[in-house]
Amino acid sequence: QVQLVESGGGLVQPGDSLRLSCAASGGSGFTLDYYAIGWFRQAPGKEREGVSCISSSGGYSYYADSAKGRFTISRDNAKNTVYLQMNTLKREDTAVYYCAAASIGGSCSPFGYEYDYWGQGTQVTVSS
């Protein structure tokens, strides 16, 4: 069993930056090394969107078109933590952001159904 806890959300103005963290834990001997991590978001009245993901080794990453050039995903397996650096935030980035983990070797997926474990989400609100 994997537990994921997101943090770092908040209320910011357009153009500001935020860094989201996804801290993972599990049973004795747990390591994040074997899991791909995805970041997803869901705005009120909209479907969940895959924003970014990173492979277990960090060698492969994906960004949705809405995130390219503004968001950067990274991971520190020693700390069992994955980050999503979000720059130049826009009002349309407002959503609850979730991280999710999946045992996908060598790659990652932007599709939520591929993921087995989910965090509780963190709210990001971009407003002036």
CA-CA gap between termini: 40 Å
Mean pLDDT: 96
Shape: globular
What percent strand? over 45%
- Class from secondary-structure proportions: mainly beta
Along the chain, the helix and strand elements come as EEEEEEEEEEE
As residue ranges, the low-confidence spans are none
Let me know the number of strands: 11
User: Helicity, in percent?
Assistant: under 10%
Q: How many whole angstroms does the radius of gyration measure?
A: 14 Å
Summarize the biggest pleated sheet. 7 strands, mixed
**Tally of DSSP helical segments:** 0
Short note summarizing the structure:
With 128 residues, the chain is mostly beta strands.
Describe this structure as you would to a colleague.
- The chain is built from no helices and 11 strands.
- The chain has 128 residues and is mainly β.
Provide the fold topology:
Blueprint (H helix, E strand, L loop, with lengths): L1 E6 L2 E3 L5 E9 L9 E7 L6 E6 L6 E3 L7 E6 L4 E6 L8 E8 L14 E2 L3 E5 L2
Parallel strand pairs: 2-11
Antiparallel strand pairs: 1-3, 3-8, 4-5, 4-9, 5-6, 7-8, 9-10, 9-11
